[in-house]
Design a protein that fits this description.
By secondary structure, this protein is an alpha/beta fold. 48% of the residues lie in helices and 16% in strands. The protein is built from 16 helices and 13 strands. The N and C termini lie close together (9 Å). The structure holds uridine-5'-diphosphate. The site of uridine-5'-diphosphate has 16 residues, from helix 1, helix 11 and helix 12.
């Protein structure tokens, strides 16, 4: 019997982080032929991660153009991916998460009656506008997909409650934790270095590092308020802030203007994934609006304050290692102060646990796909 042909489509940094362990596991299966197509939705950030994982895309659509609208992006993705599907004729298309690339690949595959496999399926905030447009994207993918790899029992239950048959849902854990633990172990064994973070840790020795990321579309109106909270935090002499700035110029401009002149604040370019993992490992507290970072911080035992009103990752909140703090400056500053000044509050949040996975999701995903190909 000939090998099943799988086409993996990805476009952004978080997809590359969560799919590189899956692609590696799939490539260990002789019964599966795995073709990788990148859309280039986040060009530079995507390439960094694929280089780290030594994955050379088989097809590179390079579709990103600066400032394009969501409609223009979707149109280009559908046309580009559709042509790839016609040429490659895969048996299945694999997408991850909730990006425009994932949604459009699922739709193109559906139009051709090619079964869609969804990795990290079933995350729901319950609010179509938070996170936007990701909540809509992942619901659309769930409707079209044939196989759903859910990271947690919550996610699997959400899919079942939407009428998806239990036999098509597999609870695997989140492959992002596979990536995280792999890179953390490389760093700890010194097989990989993170010089940028080693330098910052030395520069800020004796201070507790608060790692900050902020980029969500729905938070763009709240950037000034978040910057105010960070200025209040930076007034403390026992703290340093390290904040990799997302490439979105709107985000960078606000934080540079507000924080650039402060001696205990380091605003950096987006960090390579290993540097970012080293930052998470070195910091005291994480303040973020990212999805993936909410999963990574608890696995490394770091309290995470989430600058959102809702989250599709309730497991960390339920366990008490993550807290929703919204985007109001006073609230963020109060929650940070509580963690910095109340050792008991800190200890309660700083328990290492991994509700999102045990680092072996990719092997499980590959095993199911091998089974399905028989
Ligand atoms: N990340 C990174 N470098 C950075 C900031 C984040 O490699 O400077 C990684 C982080 O470890 C996480 C992912 O990027 O795995 C999160 O991406 P992002 O916040 O862009 O997206 P989201 O998770 O919200 O979809």
């Amino acid at each position: 019997m000939s090998a099943q042909r799988l086409l993996v489509v990805l476009g952004t940094r978080p997809e590359a982080i969560k799919l590189f362990p899956v692609i590696r596991s799939l490539r260990e299966q002789p019964a599966l032929e795995t073709v990788v197509c990148v859309t280039g939705q986040h060009r530079a950030l995507l390439d960094q991660v694929l280089d780290l994982a030594d994955i050379r895309p088989d097809i590179d659509l390079d579709l990103m153009t600066p400032g394009q609208s969501l409609d223009a992006l979707a149109g280009r993705l559908l046309n580009g991916i559709g042509a790839v599907l016609d040429a490659e004729r895969p048996d299945r298309v694999i997408v991850q998460g909730d990006t425009a690339s994932a949604k459009c690949a699922a739709l193109s595959a559906y139009y051709r009656r090619i079964p869609v496999v969804h990795v990290e399926a079933g995350l729901r905030s319950g609010d179509l506008h938070h996170p936007w447009p990701e909540e809509g994207n992942r619901r659309i993918i769930a409707t079209l997909a044939d196989l759903h790899f859910a990271p947690t029992e919550n996610a699997a239950a959400a899919l079942r409650s939407e009428g998806i048959h239990a036999s098509r849902i597999h609870m695997t854990g989140n492959s992002g934790i596979d990536a995280l633990l792999h890179v953390r172990d490389l760093l700890r064994s010194k097989a990989r270095r993170a010089p940028a973070i080693e330098d910052l840790a030395e520069r800020f020795a004796g201070r507790r590092i608060v790692a900050v990321t902020c980029h969500r579309r729905e938070n763009l109106g709240a950037l000034a308020s978040i910057a105010d909270a960070l200025r209040m935090l930076a007034a403390r002499t026992d703290v340093a802030i390290v904040m990799p700035l997302h490439p979105n110029p709107e985000v960078g401009a606000v934080f540079r203007t507000a924080l650039e002149d402060l001696p205990n604040v380091a605003l950096t370019d987006p960090l390579d994934y290993p540097d970012f993992v080293a930052l998470l490992d070195a910091c005291y507290v994480v303040l973020t609006d990212s999805g993936g970072v909410q999963e990574e911080a608890p696995a490394l035992g770091k309290p995470v304050l989430v600058m959102r009103e809702t989250t599709e990752r309730p497991e960390g909140i339920a366990a008490g290692t993550a807290r929703l703090v919204g985007t109001e400056a006073g609230c963020i500053a109060d929650e940070l102060a509580r963690l910095l000044d109340a050792p008991a509050a800190y200890a309660a949040m700083a328990r290492a646990h991994s509700p999102y996975g045990d680092g072996r999701a990719s092997g499980r995903i590959a095993a199911v796909l091998r089974q399905e190909s028989r």
